[in-house]
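ping. complex inputs:
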Amino acid sequence: MTMPLMHPKRKNPLLRTRQLNLPPGARGRVALGLTAAASEGRFELQVCEACNAVQYPPREACLCCLSSQLKWRAQSGEGSLLATTTLHHSNDLFFRERLPWRLGLVHLDAGPTVMAHLHGEVGEAPTRVNIGARLDRAGQAVLIAFPFQGSADMADDKMLREMTSDPKFRKVLVTDGKTELGQAIVRALVKAGADIVWVGHAEPWKKAGSGLDDIAALPQVTLVPLDLTNGRSVTELAGEIGGKVDIVINNAEVHRTYGIASRRGTDVAKAEMDINYFGLLRLAQEFGPALKGRSADGETGATAWVNLLSIYALSNFPPHGTFSASKAAAHSLAQCLRAEMRPAGIRVINLFPGPIDDEWNEQMPAPKLTAQSLAASIVKALRDGVEDVYPGDVAQEWLERWRDNPKVLERELAAGG
Amino acid sequence: MTSTLTTLLSASELLGQLATALTTRRIRVIDLTQTLTPEFPQIALPPEMGQCWPFRIEEVSKYDERGPGWYWNNFSCGEHTGTHFDAPIHWISGRDLPNNSVDTIPAQHFVAPACVVDCSAQVKLDADYLMTVADIEAFEAAHGRIPTGAWVLMRTDWSQRQDPEAYQNFDATGQHTPGPSSEAVQFLVQQRDVLGFGSEAIGTDAGQGYHLRPPYPCHYFMHGAGRYGLQCLCNLDQLPPTGAVLICPPLKIQKGSGSPLRVLALVEGTA
Amino acid sequence: MARPRHSYEGVAVAVPVTVPYVRYSTHGAHWFLGQAVAALVEGAGITKDQIDGLCVSSFSLAPDTAVGVTQHLGLSPRWLDHIPTGGASGVMALRRAARAVQAGDADIVACVGADTNHVDSFRQTLGAFSNFARDATYPYGAGGPNSIFAFITANYMRTYGATRADFGRIAVSQRDNALKNPNALFKKPLALAEYMAAKPISDPIHLFDCVMPCAGAEAFLVMSEERARDLGLAHVVVRAGIERHNAYAQDPVMVRGGWLADRDELYAQAGIAPADIDFVQTYDDYPVIVMMQFEDLGFCAKGEGPAFVRSHTLTHDGSFPNNTSGGQLSCGQAGAAAGFLGMTEGIRQLTDQAGEHTVPGAQLGLVAGFGMVTYDRCLCTGAIILGRST
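pong. complex structure:
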């Protein structure tokens, strides 16, 4: 049974804030394939196309037949636990600070033997386990042995919490609470057990329906002025709450439906860039340092940054051409942010939804994502500790087409989809 | 103050008197301008239309590694951000008039007398209050006829609404701010040949001006007649009903439709 | 049917050298190599340029390899080998040097295992020890090979019923041997109770199951028997030798080592049986591996290691002398030198240079090698049977 996480006590402000030592983050190029799959929530291993042998550790030639045709394929992860050990000593600073730490040796049904972190609910050998892959604090894939049947409090396992960014008992900033999506995100966070949700809103004199007032009534919610186009607004808010924010969810965006010829002038495109790209830049400059400083601050320290991008960031959707370009710019910058946050163990999560069921996608055909389902996928991404999320059928399909052949997708989108 | 005095003195003597009066505070300078800050609201149009930029400012350096000995900023805004001037070219009705942009308006027009019509009591009760011809006639009964080529400023004390939400005063049916009636504007243009109209609110027309006939009559008729507009004024309560001289030159923007500016009023001092 | 292997007839192994171990040193590996080669030269009564073959094993030479060592020490060999194979290096060095001497490719080969140890050497070596360690064990906080051998030990205990006390017997007897070896770093006796009560490192591995990394060197010379006699050197002969790498890769977890695959050939080559062996110098990175060597080298059946240990005394003067110098568990592990420790001890035992820890009347000895945990088990195994020269 996992001890359910108790609400942490108030921190003694006179104590030095613990800084994060990262677990070993070096991986060879081939091994990064494990990380790439884990960043999307999958456990994959290389499988030889010639003889079907499953490979581990990752390598350049099949260990059975020497073929170089090794393809990453999803694995069930089922296996037998052969032995366990509890580390009482480690030369590595990350593990040293977290001793004792349980490890296991698992023989996968698929063939290889793997070393894995053990979930606390896994018993002693011999027993059956389920291997999954998660990103650790260094942002690299590690294997974890899970029990087949976990308790309700499974997610509170200390080791697992190091790999994930569960919003429970944490303080979250949602940058735009004026949209239906923003409000759905706030409700989903409150339901997930967040302590405080700061909800940003710009131009308070522009009324946009009563949704904002409704969520302001929730006890966990505090409305805060935040205009991502105004550097000073961002700086002031960061000065006020930056030192307490554990998770930033940047859902603020401007979405218009123009390509190049359909709207003269650059003002609409500039408005899109000013929030979708520069807004992210301002936010990251102001809130990044505070998050980084608190990434090891107790059990509910700073942990993640979520960006609402768009599947159009991968390949331009010409009817929303300037919006696509702004999301592509934001995507590139989010990759930069991910690299800068990594040394502090802060996970940057990018979401690439297809069309959301909102006013700017009114003319897009179904299927469209509801605000509730998108909000739920954000909370799930935080809980699963993944990095790249493609929620919904449209996003999944476009991703598959883009990975298959991006040039073909470009043509198809130019022809209307 | 009589007109004989002005005819007795030469122009240079007049100017000298003016300079002395300013130095001794016999004539005071009142600032009718709102400070340009990122928080100050700007005019908001329906989302499908082009929008006016809000005021934004970003440090270039502040005695730091970006520039060790100096402090300066870059800023951006629209022509119609903050306390600003509207030129006739701003409206479709004034598009073809001569000298209709901020760079071509004769500079002589940038210093002119102003009349202040106090509607603050009515506006307290009704945010959508429209200044009527009757209000103008009542003003003239008390303070004399509005002279040709003068600014007419509608005092509403609206500028005392410091909270941007209250200043913009939007609800589900749109914006609710005071302005002139269509008839009042036409009267001022045709019967009194005014220089322009000034407001404390976000626009010279009332917030619900779209529903007047024609829509936005102040813009339509004023600019259609080659006259000007001032909005987001403040401190009108410090001006006399008549006698103040407004100094309001907009930035000399090539083919500009308007610009943020410093609006100053010269008024009688206490000395 | 494999081709029959050549014998090692005519090959002599002489001049066992130990450069005394220290816990930490500010010197580089080259210093210990130089000391070892100097001692070989002096011990053999030859000049440095008479060494025309060099075989080096070291973890702390980087960025140098054996090539750099030749220039560093002013040697000009006509045969050179660099074998980065840790605990199997001594066995492998001897097999290669012997063939070079037999073929006439070299006259006198110096075989040296040497390593320095700085205060943070251990952690730095681990970070880049192997591709698989970097990708698949180090990220789990595995403190070096401890966790891997914890798994192997736990699995062995569960499968064959070995207890910690069984492993303790190995550790205790080796310490008894070490007390009579002036070169051993551990000078205090170890009682079984103390072994059992020691703090856990990565259970079931506890403190006295682990070697202590240190700096030092071990070395020996390989030459023809004729040359050894001309130089008046006490020497031993090589009766047989095997090595095997990445054996039994299909075993999900290590329960047997590569020795098993070729041990019949080993004894056949020497023309003897396990019962003829008078002492073993097993590779003792962890007691469980010592026990496996007892099984896989033919002294008992698989799974009978615990019973074997309970029914024999393992001290130099006992019924089954094992690691008569104390082994690396009690001498210290000077990096790759640990792969040569058993060899120099074996040579001493068979040339009456073993002082107070002599195995009485020893004629034949077995020296085993084991090394290189690149992922979840050691890959290299080897074994040599040495005999007294006639």
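The mean pLDDT of chain A is 94.
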